[in-house]
Design brief:
By secondary structure, the chain is mostly beta strands. About 15% of the residues lie in helices and about 45% in strands. The chain has one domain. It contains 3 helices and 13 strands. Strands 1, 2, 3, 4, 5, 6, 7, 8, 9, 10, 11, 12 and 13 form a 13-stranded antiparallel beta sheet that branches.
Length: about 250
């Protein structure tokens, strides 16, 4: 959670202090996960992923991002209001509304948070518009196992003032080496999106009617891409498409 109304990256130092550890800013090859194999379990093995797909999650800061966005007409006015009056003001969850907003691409930085015993607590992924420096997303990535689950999910927490939005994404590997991440419908305690609010020193959580799907894959020319679809209940709200290019080619073992 953030203690200030403006989020941006202000929550990083506070989170590190709460963990009793340290914060390493802008780690050159920092990844959202140390090892994708931490997600292994019944129905998923990181070994089935294409090496580039796996490398993106384990060395995220090594990849450059280009973004395209497409809003459904029905939701565009509401998205515009939220983006202008909330997202841009607080520097969090400011979804780009027009393709020209991201015409120059999106910068991606990863900072690592560790505890007192130097164990990773999470990876802070900060994404800003390359043209303006405005914050789009600022989230803490880790892996967690939900109650009753047989394997871990990717866990993302987006800090807000006196609360946060938490998303649990279930990974699946396709036969072509691509990765699917789902936060679908289900009961409380299942993969999906949750809103957590702190009130009078207590935290209250409720399941949000947000559904997300990510597909991370290589296209026919060997370019790494991601399709991201966000739905509200069953209605599609927005689609985002990312082209991912490695900044520096490391030698293949």
């Amino acid at each position: 959670m953030a203690s200030e109304s403006v989020v941006r990256d202000n929550w990083l130092a506070e989170t590190a202090r709460a963990a009793g550890g340290t914060l390493s800013h802008d780690v050159a090859e920092g990844g959202l996960l140390e090892d994708m194999a931490r997600l292994d379990g019944p129905g998923f093995s990181a070994a089935d992923l294409h090496p580039d797909v796996r490398d993106f999650y384990e060395h995220t800061a090594s990849w450059r991002m280009e973004v395209w966005t497409g809003w459904e007409p029905l939701f565009w006015p509401g998205g515009e209001v939220i983006s202008r009056l909330f997202g841009k003001r607080v520097g969090q969850l400011a979804l780009p509304m027009r393709s020209l907003d991201v015409a120059h691409g999106m910068d991606s930085r990863v900072s690592l948070i560790t505890d007192a015993e130097d164990r990773r607590v999470g990876a802070a992924w900060l994404r800003t518009l390359r043209s303006t420096g405005d914050f789009v997303y600022s989230g803490c990535y880790s892996h967690r196992r939900l109650p009753g689950a047989e394997r871990d999910s990717i866990h993302v927490a987006f800090p807000l003032e006196e609360g946060n939005v938490q998303v649990f994404l279930r990974p699946e590997a396709d036969a072509d080496g691509s990765l699917w991440l789902h936060s679908g419908a289900g009961p409380f305690g299942a993969d999906g999106a949750y809103v957590v609010v702190r009130h009078r020193e207590r935290e209250h959580a409720s399941r949000a009617p947000i559904r997300e799907r990510f597909h991370v894959y290589l296209d026919a020319e060997g370019v790494l891409r991601t399709d991201h679809e966000l739905r509200l209940w069953g209605a599609r709200v927005v689609r985002l498409h990312y082209r991912l290019d490695r900044r520096v080619r490391r030698p293949t073992p």
